Amino acid sequence: MKFDLDEDRALLKSSTRELLEKESPLADARGVMETSAEGFSKPLYAQLAELGYLGLALSEEEGGSGMGPIGLAAVLHEMGRVALPGPYLDEVLAAEALRGLEAPAAQQALRAVVGGEQQIVLARAESLSGIEPATPATRWQGGRVQGRKLFVPFGASADALLVTTAEGLVLVARPSAGWNAQPLQTLDHAQRFVEVALDAPGTLVADAASAQRRLEAVDRLAALGAAALLLGLMERALELSVAYLMERKAFGVPIGSFQALQHRAADCLLRVESSRSAVYRAAWALEHDPEAARLLVAVAKAYAGDAGRSVTGEAIQFFGGVGYTWEYDPHIYYKRTKTLEQFYGPTRAQLEAALQAAGI
């Protein structure tokens, strides 16, 4: 489908590209990914907060920028192109979980996230399989949270966690001694997942029913956000591949002149453009047609996950032997794509959600 951004969101997208190419090109981000304990540039995230990016999807009444899901998708599309490391999407999702909650602690935490004063992320996973129990094993009793959470994104550096418990959504501030967190190894060297053991004071900000409603909204926004990141990753990986195919020569001519490689590149382009249509159609539905969004967001994430793995995998093949080396960039895009394919709603879960939404 043909989708054009309106003037405000088009300007947002172009200014985001300019900002990221200046402040966080992949060459600079590599050093942050490989050596930083936090896994991201705190000065850059402070700048993003100052510019209003952390409240992008929130209304102006909620302290946000009012750009909605379409604006968020456009920004994440650009962040994917530079494989931006850090908890940007995770903080946006924390803000989505907190929005509309009446508890004073939730409203204060929302302002802190949007203003860049605190890094708050969700702590939900309790299973290595990715299949979560209907009722979390983590409990909130006597004002304390007890249990463990897996794959908490950038949890070691978080100022607070939004923890799902059997009683509802609980806000837990970082203990004075720090989190009892163990790093979890993943394919993507830019990611910082941790396992957190919790036995700390917490504030209940939403009961079980309210938490369920908020988390359903979070899951839809998470799937859209991850799909937009995947679009940016595969789009840039294809651009790098085409440039290399035109530069690398064999038998005295660019290898991009070989028809077999042209066909493979064309297949990649088809996947990129199909993902673009799916992502922005889903973003529009999430903003204007919530009922249709259930199906369209699931389709966008499922398709972009599969397409992203294919395109970034092909990028490594296009580069040939050097495509596997650390010095070249294709592996970064492939690893980030594999991470996003599995998190924020894995492909199988999205396909099941799409079937349910379609009434099949």
Annotation keywords:
single chain, 360 residues, alpha+beta, Butyryl-Coa Dehydrogenase, subunit A, domain 1, Butyryl-CoA Dehydrogenase, subunit A, domain 2, Butyryl-CoA Dehydrogenase, subunit A, domain 3, 3 domains, four-stranded mixed sheet, four-stranded antiparallel sheet, 11 helices, 10 strands
How many domains comprise the coordinates?
A: 3
Count of DSSP-assigned helices? 11
Q: What series of H and E elements makes up the topology? A: HHHHHHEEEEEEEEHEEHHHH
What proportion strand?
5-15%
What's the overall geometry? globular
Name the CATH superfamily assignment of the largest domain.
Answer: Butyryl-CoA Dehydrogenase, subunit A, domain 3
Helix content: 40-55%
Strand tally:
10
Find the structural class using helix and strand composition: alpha+beta
Mean pLDDT: 94
Could you name the CATH class of the largest domain?
Answer: Mainly Alpha
Strand order of the largest sheet: 1-4-5-8
Radius of gyration, whole Å? 20 Å
Major beta sheet, specifics?
4 strands, mixed
CATH architecture of the largest domain: Up-down Bundle
Low-confidence stretches: none
